[in-house]
Sequence to fold (438 residues):
Amino acid sequence: MTSFIRQINKTAASLYNQAKSTPSGKAGSFTTGIRILREIFLLSRPQETDIHQRMKPSRHLSWIEISRSALFRNISALGRMAGNRIMAVCVKANAYGHGLPQIVGLIAKHPRVEYLTVHSLEEAVACRESGWVRKIMVLGPIATQNLEAVLEYDLEPVVFTREMLTRLGKISDRTKKRIRTHLKLETGTNRQGITEGELPAFAAIYRKYPYLKRPWGAGMHFANIEDTTSHEYAEYQLKNYRRLVAAMGRMGIKPTLRHTACSAALMLFEKTRFDLVRPGIAVYGHWPSKETYLTYRLQGGQNDIVNPVLSWKTRITQIKRLPANSFIGYGCSYRTTSPTRLAVLPIGYYDGYDRSLSNQAYVLIRGKRSPVRGRVCMNLMMVDVTDIAGVKLGDVATLVGRDGKEVLTAEQLAEWAQTINYEILARLSPSIFRELAH
Fold:
């Protein structure tokens, strides 16, 4: 850790001196600032630490396995649904918990994907650092003082405020370079988005800054296309979207690319696909919801078009025998009713295993279910292996994935935790080692 801190200090000092030597207000000083932020980001990313690079996968106490073949099959299946539309794969939230560098590295080998979509500037830069040379759309906000990075890293920002578009216009005119912008239209989600009444002001900004030209794209996000089998509200939003795009055309800012389709929209409704589709969770082999799956099957869709990419595993680090009437864990929330063989696992809520799974979930050991006993701790959890023969120190416990005939899914964990599969996946700690598998 001491050498790690020294490395940060040394890098920061070096780049700071470069920044001081650059005339104030010049683009170079901004670029140096971005480099400082990026260097610190790289140095502080847990999954890139030397210890992970030195350790073989078999030496890790917990790890996540990423299936190349499942990822590629999912992309190909969704690509067939998309037809000739451009495909933009979402890798925000550390690629839905799968590991951004690993997933980006794999997607780069698949020719069907033209875009990545991310939430933040930091994620976009990480994609470039991971070797991605194709297009990147930034869906979320970017701090005004960091907008120069849009040109630096060749990004396409999604715009939803006049202040952001004005700043981009100034940068574009000053550098005499076009910035491809996408407008986020408000159709009923009432989150990020531009209302119909605000469009004339945005059109005026495009006219004021000629190098911006016109929006490269216009998108929206559905509020209620996943969690229901009744899609009247999605139809309402789609109608609003068409009206707003038509208004953009009348104002002289007709977009080149129209895009509305998330995973659920892509899988269910051809009319949402327009020019570009933006699948997210389905790329990683998960249905957006039970309702999406049901609607798709009722429409005659096949059962296994996507398959999970991720498995999560750990190893038993201690085994102990407890007599009847022994309490387990914090709060004494579980009490044994008979002699019990208990296994300790080095996983806790810090790693993304939700505390609400205490005393109700199970893991898979030697192809059998092993119930969680006691409260899930910050870094540890306990499971009952009394009825599993031959369990020994170092045995693998599967938290998500397959072991023999048994399968434990992110959806099952989400049901126990009373949440959604998105959250189970996105909260997986970046510090867990990611291993590429077939």
Q: What stands out?
A: The radius of gyration is 25 Å. Residues 311-408 form a domain with the Lyase, Ornithine Decarboxylase; Chain A, domain 1 fold (CATH 2.40.37.10). Confidence is low (pLDDT under 50) at residues 1-5, 22-30, 40-50. The longest strand covers residues 396-403.
